[in-house]
Predict the structure.
Amino acid sequence: MIRTLTTGLALAALMGTAAFAETFEVQMLNKGSDGERMVFEPAFVQAVPGDTIKFIAADKSHNAEINAGMLPEGAEVFSGKINEEFEVTLDVEGVYGVICKPHFAMGMVMTIALGDVDAPEDFLAGRVPPKAKQRFEAQLDNL
Ligand SMILES: [Cu+2]
């Protein structure tokens, strides 16, 4: 009897968590509200497993995709098409580096932190253009 009750409560807690999963909208813009060119806004999202990130093609010619190696172990790579609005639900805790392929060199990047995580040491170990690196570093300062 007690056991059943406990299981029921645990289930309710689980379902409660799912019901409160959030969706974060990220705009892909030619110009941000701070005047910077080629940006994701917001450029940093703090979320928890089960949350969804929705990329909005507010301006044309942008996409959102995981940069090579910039995701937690066991997480799935995602890649949106140019001008495509799409959403992705993330389940693996860690730090995700997202880029717009056409504007990577111009620094169009963003960071998603899933869970209470630190920046991985090798996050910027790959080939990252200077402007993108600068912005990633600023985003990682949020951790
Ligand atoms: Cu872009």
Residues 2-19 form the longest helix (18 residues).
